[in-house]
Specification:
The protein is of the alpha/beta class. The protein folds into 2 domains: 104 residues; 204 residues, Vaccinia Virus protein VP39 (Rossmann fold). It is 38% helix and 17% strand. The strands form 2 sheets. Strands 5, 6, 7, 8, 9, 10, 11, 12 and 13 form a 9-stranded mixed sheet that branches. The protein has a 4-stranded antiparallel sheet with strand order 2-3-1-4. Strand 8, helix 14 and strand 9 form a beta-alpha-beta unit. Helix 1 packs across helix 2, helix 1 packs across helix 3 and helix 1 packs across helix 4. The longest helix is centred in the C-terminal third of the chain and has 21 residues. It is globular.
Length: 393
């Protein structure tokens, strides 16, 4: 592909990404993959270059752009070489018209940028949300140790007890260490969520929003594969991926429980008042994960955020029913919006005087109200809010 053809390809993919964002469709990564699947003429260099253009444009546009062309024109404003490729030649974008306008730059849609600023995320802290993320892995303590593990490339320790950091794009899933269950891909912030839970061997722990089980496996390793873990989720497909991951990791104390949305306690009734600890890694806006999914900020609106807040509070209440006297809940969201973190915890504590905050002592993050905030700018991790609360005996 010529450089101009790569630009045109990026424009076409961006149009698909924009349409998917408006319709809550597939993520940008999948759009790039699907576009190239039917275009065998494109080599690996073409795919890398086009992908780079697509994600540069996504990161540059604050609000959802009118079109892929408008998004690419925004990049061209500061890139004379890129601008020169809008020349109308074969497979190239058409020349820029006198009345054409590029997309608006920014961190996020204006309403969302304002909410972040109200939550103390602005300036450099906001810009860091759109940096490229490194690749973090967790060394599986059931099979290896961070100090003795030998990997194909050098890795740097992170703030988490079993965390290592590699350059973005490192093909860890092709390594023997991954195949044999010695390592798992997991951001350091997610590993610190589990450290805040302080799971102990022999305990009964419920992972209420387990997804595919990344934190579940970290909990099992911390428990030395002794005790009982119930991993729950409403997504059958995601929860179904846990069993093969657990087998690879050598974890044998996990059972899964599929939940019906809004009827979680029906399935969890046998566990009411019995858990030593419950992890609520609640569904959220994902503002802390934009480094990996920058187009996610185009999918949010105030109404969906309010619905998510209601769900978070309900799951908090479900978790409280499951914990035995003296037990604990860790509430975590990969969001930097106060409405999803500190405000949810404050509301729960106000409504439940038999619980008290117990902020975790972590090796990263800054205190924020009753919990700890991790952020890309301060900690080099995904953005997370983590709070631990205890049931008063």
């Amino acid at each position: 592909m010529t450089p101009a053809a790569r630009v045109q390809a990026a424009i076409e993919i961006l149009d698909l990404v924009i349409a998917a964002a408006r319709a809550n469709g597939a993520p940008a990564d999948r759009m790039v993959t699907e576009w190239f699947r039917t275009r065998r003429f494109a080599g690996s260099g073409d795919r890398r270059a086009v992908r780079e253009l697509v994600f540069r444009a996504i990161r540059a546009c604050g609000d959802i752009p009118m079109s892929g062309r408008a998004a690419m024109l925004l990049l061209a404003m500061d890139d004379p070489v890129l601008a020169s490729l809008f020349d109308g030649s074969r497979h190239a974008p058409e020349p820029v018209g006198d009345d054409e306008r590029p997309a608006e730059p920014g961190i996020a849609p204006p309403w969302l940028a304002a909410r972040l600023a109200e939550s103390g995320i602005e300036g450099e802290a906001a810009r860091a949300l759109l940096d490229r993320a490194p690749l973090d892995i967790r060394v599986n303590a059931l099979k290896a140790s961070r100090e003795t593990l030998v990997l194909p490339v050098p890795a740097e320790p992170t703030q988490a007890q079993s965390g290592l950091r590699l350059p973005s794009g490192t093909p860890v899933e092709s390594w023997d260490a991954f195949r044999d269950g010695l390592i798992e891909v997991q951001d350091t912030a997610s590993q610190l969520v589990v450290e805040a839970l302080v799971p102990q061997p022999g305990e009964f722990v419920i992972d209420l929003c387990a997804g595919a089980g990344g934190k579940t496996l970290a909990i099992a390793a911390a428990m030395e594969n002794r005790g009982r873990i119930v991993a729950c989720d409403t997504d059958r497909a995601r929860l179904g991926r846990l069993a093969p991951r657990a087998e690879r990791a050598g974890v044998g104390i996990v059972e899964t429980q599929l939940l019906n949305p809004g009827q979680e306690l029906t399935a969890l009734e046998p566990f009411v008042g019995k858990a030593d600890a419950v992890l609520v890694d609640a569904p959220c806006s994902g503002t802390g994960t934009w480094r990996r999914n920058p187009e996610a900020r185009w999918r949010l609106d105030p109404a969906s955020l309010e619905r998510t807040n209601a769900l978070q509070s309900r799951l908090f209440d479900v978790a409280a029913r499951l914990v035995k006297p003296g037990g604990r809940i860790v509430y975590a969201v990969c969001s930097l919006l106060d409405a999803e973190g500190p405000e949810r915890v404050a509301r729960f504590l106000a409504d439940n005087p038999d619980w008290r905050a117990d902020p975790p002592a972590l090796s990263a993050g800054l205190p924020r109200d009753s919990g700890i905030r991790l952020s890309p700018s301060h900690d080099g991790t995904d953005g997370f809010y983590i709070a631990r609360i205890l049931a008063i005996c």
